[in-house]
């Protein structure tokens, strides 16, 4: 496209070299070679493009070495003015999205077994093998599984759940323990006024503690996950305050309108 005189912008939501290193389906002994080769190719191509857009500063700090016109446009949700939390079901947690192992569903199911009386409203795509694996857990008895649903139905699900679950493993493609802002799920919960339980990534712990909008846990610590769910269920006033705080944070800062302006300014400059 550049050869035809077109303006080309590279949009990167993932740290692809790190992501390659974490792909278990790629034989371990060649992952580094593939990651290295991609990095060299990426550098060669990106130098020629008009701009780069990515979702967080960690990825941007790497890509700006190849192209100085690198911009951070975070993946924040559109803020809705008409959100109501009048149909919340007590003793419920929820998740909507791609149902993958890195979202630690096994540990959530074990936590549900420990709790014994909490429902998990779960929606999204899942590989058949992984879904069957989850269904072998005792905690699956507490799951209401909806499969893949529309965006409109996701919002209706969010209206029901008392707690939003966003527990992701410390994988390389999200920066390990540091984490990143590419998790729109966290911001979706906040926008919907839902208190969240999320991974104690450094970047997310800072946000959650600053705005007091949820609880951060070690994704491998089932007791911490269990305790966080129990605490929010036992303290509905605090949970409601956390949800309100998260919604206010999105309204004031973590909304798409603030990022749209950056993107439009970039377009105007090209």
From TrEMBL:
Gene3D superfamilies to which the protein is assigned, alphabetical: Glycogen Phosphorylase B
A Pfam cross-reference name: Glycos_transf_1
Keyword Transferase: yes
Annotated keywords: Transferase
Gene Ontology terms, MF aspect: glycosyltransferase activity
Domain Glycosyl transferase family: 87-248
Keyword Iron-sulfur: no
InterPro entries, sorted: Glyco_trans_1
GO biological process, one term: lipopolysaccharide biosynthetic process
Name of the protein this chain belongs to: Glycosyltransferase family 4 protein
């Amino acid at each position: 496209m550049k050869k035809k005189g077109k303006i080309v912008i590279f949009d990167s939501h993932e740290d692809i070299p790190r992501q390659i290193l974490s792909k278990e389906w790629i034989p371990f002994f060649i992952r580094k070679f593939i990651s290295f080769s991609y990095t060299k190719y990426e550098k060669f191509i990106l130098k020629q493009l008009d701009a780069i857009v990515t979702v967080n500063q960690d990825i941007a700090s790497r890509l700006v070495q190849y192209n100085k016109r690198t911009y951070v446009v975070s993946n924040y949700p559109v803020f809705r003015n008409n959100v109501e939390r009048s149909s919340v079901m007590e003793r419920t947690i929820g998740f909507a999205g791609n149902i993958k192992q890195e979202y630690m569903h096994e540990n959530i199911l074990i936590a549900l077994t420990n709790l014994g009386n909490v429902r998990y409203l779960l929606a999204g795509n899942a590989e058949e093998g992984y879904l069957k694996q989850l269904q072998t857990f005792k905690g699956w008895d507490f799951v209401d599984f909806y499969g893949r649903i529309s965006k409109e139905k996701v919002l209706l699900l969010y209206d029901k759940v008392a707690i939003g679950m966003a527990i992701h493993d410390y994988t390389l493609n999200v920066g390990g323990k540091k984490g990143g802002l590419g998790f729109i799920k966290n911001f979706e919960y906040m926008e919907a006024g839902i208190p969240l339980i999320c991974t104690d990534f450094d970047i997310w712990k800072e946000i959650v503690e600053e705005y007091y909008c949820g609880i951060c846990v070690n994704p491998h610590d089932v007791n911490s996950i269990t305790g966080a769910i129990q605490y929010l269920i036992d303290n509905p006033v605090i949970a409601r305050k956390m949800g309100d705080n998260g919604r206010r944070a999105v309204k004031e800062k973590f909304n798409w309108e603030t990022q749209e302006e950056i993107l439009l300014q970039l377009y105007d400059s090209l």
